[in-house]
Amino acid sequence: MPARTLFEKVWASHEVVAETADTPAILYIDLHLTHEVTSPQAFSVLRERGLPVRRTDRTLATLDHSTPTDRAQLFGEIPIRLESARHQVEALERNAAAFGVELLGLKSERRGIVHIIGPELGVTQPGKTIVCGDSHTSTHGAFGALAFGIGSTEVGHVMATQCLLQRKPKTLAVEVDGRLAPGVGAKDLVLAIIGRLGVSGGTGHVIEYRGPAIEALSMEQRMTVCNMSIEAGARAGMVAPDQTTFDYLQERPRAPQGEAWDAALEAWRALHTEPGARFDRVLELDATEILPMITWGTNPGMVVPVTGVIPASGDAVFHKSLQYMGFEPGQPMAGKPIDVVFVGSCTNARLSDLREVARVLRGRRVDKSVRMLVVPGSQQVKREAEAEGLHQVFIDAGAEWRESGCSMCLGMNGDTVASGRYSVSTSNRNFEGRQGTGARTMLASPLTAAASAVTGRITDPRDLLA
Amino acid sequence: MDSVTTITSRTLVMASTNIDTDQIIPARFLTTTTRDGLGKALFADWRYDAEGQPRPDFLLNTPEAVGRSVLVAGRNFGCGSSREHAPWALVDFGFRAVISTEIADIFRSNALKNGLVPVIVDEQAHAWLLEHPGAEVTVDVERCVLSLPDQREVSFPLENFARYCLLNGVDELGFLLSRLPAIEEYEQRERK
């Protein structure tokens, strides 16, 4: 057998039927995560056809996108204000009960953003195929899983058959040499990668992130990198599992235990790209050259170092984008005034992200011109942050400390940025209107977001870390 | 799904590159629990002003937009969120085909499941289409060919299975359900 990539190994072991010229492969799905936004229409299809959820033991639901982040609404002390969101939450509660799907619901201490709770619980594991009606499912690839987002029709396919019809994607190796410098994080790395690939550079491909700089990352950092694979257009992003992965998973509530752990470990150790295996494409970067990054435009590929300047010229889309942002060609990013800072989302709302924010905010105040929202990625992250006193750092600095959810990443729950306002956000998309109609989003790392909150302006975090 | 064989229409042209699914339908419209009636939210932030009034200069609000079923878009259409609400909104508005040089993976997959034909053409044909808004074109699913008014025929890629499903109005779920014995056999073999 020729040398195989990590992706090819995981793909091959999940082929129920291999693809032919006339038919796509039938790919088995080990874990189906689902949430309130993309599942209602799928449950409707099951109802119309009289079908059950075939493997409820491989299906896990939670509420995250349209859920409130204030305690009174979340815990039912007062009704959810946004009526359509309330209906959607109630629909998933009804559907989960009717179809026997486990739901980590509003009051569950395990609830959180779907891509944060999977790893936390230990259901995200190397070598699995994982899907969810959500494009940031690529996050789970950090564990060496093949994880990708699907639409609602496919959500129904997985519910009914535990399988998907898929064409085998191509492979793209992103080789990152060297080490990230102090003050530069996984978010900066992935923004730099997207800047190089462009927002469609990964279309049709599964990325494997490789090399010394990737191996040196923690699991939470690897999740940040894999999370944004879709922002380069890629189906999925993967990192080969190693001791860092195994240490993270051991003793997680739903990870294998005892003898099953030993057996799993043996299988997981084989999940790496063999020497001589061929990728369809390769991109090479040197981590040591990467600086803190920030976006200036209306897609994640429009990105420069925080010390950099907006490009001097471009096409019609470039000018439309700058007009939306209220920026001029050639302007420096550092020093631009801001209105809102959002720390949260499946990209950067894990404990290590909140620690980074606290590192900057400790003993400092959020500038009076800035509203800062800190939204933990899960109720577990919230508890852990509070056990360390991080929440007090945020509150003392003048930031709002919320319950977990997707929140201001996409503003479905009413947490939005007002039209024309500037937001520095640790989330993943700076599309027009993403954080609210007319909102102007700049994507950055937790450190850059915190530093900018303190000064009220786009700020290189290294200036405050000295 | 209804079968799709040929689509003949004058085109609407939105030349912007990287039109993401947040533009096609903003997140605040995703709190629906059905797939119906989303056409009114299509391109909502470009189409309506702050008071919810249609912007007269936006393409979909112009008289030409009425009855057109082929959208020509800039490179990398449909990137971003996996929301199937994007093709649902386009189809509900009346579109049956989207033409670009690149179409994002998840959007493309979602489009095919809703009878919206993703037509990926070369740069040259695309440039011509961008320069000739309103040109009458025909998308022939059987032959995987886009016909331009000057009799030119441009082929586009469509895997056999997707073509078969479009032509016959077959939905993939039925196909998958017919393969349940193979799925069960896999589960036993792999102890899943």
Structure notes:
By secondary structure, chain A is α/β, with parallel strands linked by helices. Chain A folds into three domains: 161 residues, Aconitase, domain 3 (2-Layer Sandwich), CATH 3.30.499; 107 residues, Aconitase, Domain 2, CATH 3.40.1060.10; 166 residues, 2-Layer Sandwich (Aconitase, domain 3). A five-stranded parallel β-sheet of chain A has the order 5-4-3-6-7. Chain A has a five-stranded parallel β-sheet with strand order 17-16-15-18-19, with helices on one face. Chain A has a four-stranded parallel β-sheet with strand order 11-10-9-12. In chain A, helix 13 links the parallel strand 15 and strand 16. In chain A, helix 13 packs across helix 15 and helix 13 packs parallel to helix 16. The longest helix of chain A is centred in the first third of the chain and has 17 residues. The N and C termini of chain A lie far apart (53 Å). Chain B is of the alpha/beta class. Chain B has a single domain, classed as Aconitase, domain 4 (Alpha-Beta Barrel). Chain B contains eight helices and seven strands. A seven-stranded mixed β-sheet of chain B has the order 4-3-2-1-5-6-7. The longest helix of chain B has 10 residues. Chains A and B meet through helix 2, helix 4, helix 6 and helix 12 of A and helix 4, helix 6, helix 7 and helix 8 of B.
Distance between the termini of chain B: 32 Å
DSSP summary: helix tally of chain B = 8
Query: By CATH's scheme, which homologous superfamily of chain B applies?
Result: Aconitase, domain 4
Give the SSE order of chain B as H and E letters.
EHHEHEHEHEEEHHH
Q: In short, what is this structure?
A:
The complex is a heterodimer of chains A (466) and B (192). By secondary structure, chain A is of the alpha/beta class.
Topology:
The complex is a heterodimer of chains A (466) and B (192).
Chain A: H1 6-12, E1 15-17, E2 25-28, E3 31-34, H2 40-49, E4 59-62, H3 71-74, H4 83-99, E5 102-104, H5 114-121, E6 129-132, E7 146-149, H6 152-161, E8 163-166, E9 170-177, H7 186-197, E10 205-210, H8 212-215, H9 219-227, E11 236-238, H10 243-249, H11 258-269, E12 281-286, E13 293-295, E14 303-305, H12 316-325, E15 340-343, H13 351-361, E16 371-374, H14 379-387, H15 390-397, E17 400-401, E18 422-425, E19 440-443, H16 446-455, H17 462-465
Parallel strand pairs in A: 3-4, 3-6, 4-5, 6-7, 9-10, 9-12, 10-11, 15-16, 15-18, 16-17, 18-19
Antiparallel strand pairs in A: 1-2, 2-8, 13-14
Chain B: E1 6-14, H1 21-24, H2 44-47, E2 70-73, H3 85-93, E3 97-100, H4 105-112, E4 117-120, H5 123-131, E5 136-140, E6 145-147, E7 153-155, H6 160-168, H7 172-178, H8 180-189
Parallel strand pairs in B: 1-2, 2-3, 3-4
Antiparallel strand pairs in B: 1-5, 5-6, 6-7
